[in-house]
Amino acid sequence: MDSANDSATFWEKHYAGTDARWGTRPNVVLTDLLADLAPAPGTALDLGCGHGGDALWLAAQGWEVTAVDVSRTALDRVDAGAAATGVTDRVRTERHDLAATFPDGTYTLVAATYFHTPLTIPRDQVLRRAAAAVAPGGLLTVIEHASVAPWSWEAGKDVRFPTPDGVIASLELTGDWHVERGEAPQRTATGPGGRTATVTDNVIAVRRIR
Question: For the chain, what is the domain count?
Fold first, then answer.
């Protein structure tokens, strides 16, 4: 793979230049979803975990979490956060370039929260593998940008986003699934430096029935 498209190189540089405190709070869309759809803790797979805001929150709620990222720097910060908050026994970090490798096992929750990159990756294929990792009765959540925030790397570009129905169709779900959420709400987001903007998210939650 050409270094210009090397995810590890890109994300290591990204996190090396990012304040370690950024992204350590859970995503409120995910916490609200789980309050409604998965109130009892189980096993969770957090794809593209970054600094671990979601993973550490899940662990604090009693979930057994596998936190995955391509950046060793990000994973080291998740490990440090787990130690600082007393949840080391419930957080396991694994380094994967999800375009090439994927964690083993099945989980009661698989979360892909803002699983975006400016690099070219087989994103639909990764999300289909995410769906395949959901245990019977479990939940796949996909929370993603459906508009461009002013601080985004896509700012100023003509970006076309899929609809929630389009994302669900791209999962190519086989077997017995139920769509719990498939919507595109607006919210006020806070970016670097405290800047705020109104943004739209795709919020998808699908449950494997059996």
Answer: 1
CATH code, domain carrying 56: 3.40.50.150
Which residues span the domain enclosing 33?
3-208
What global pTM score does this model have? 0.90
State the amino acid at position 76 in one-letter form: D
Backbone angles phi, psi at 132, to 5 degrees: -65, -20
Contact 205, 131 (CB under 8 A): no
The pLDDT tens digits along the chain (210 residues) read 344 448 888 888 878 877 667 666 999 999 999 999 999 999 999 999 999 999 999 999 999 999 999 999 999 999 999 999 999 999 999 999 999 999 999 999 999 999 878 778 899 999 999 999 999 999 999 999 888 876 775 666 777 889 999 999 999 998 899 999 999 999 888 877 788 989 999 999 999 998
Helix or strand (DSSP H, E) at 9: helix 7-16
Q: Yes or no: say if 198 and 186 are a contact pair by the CB < 8 Å rule.
A: yes
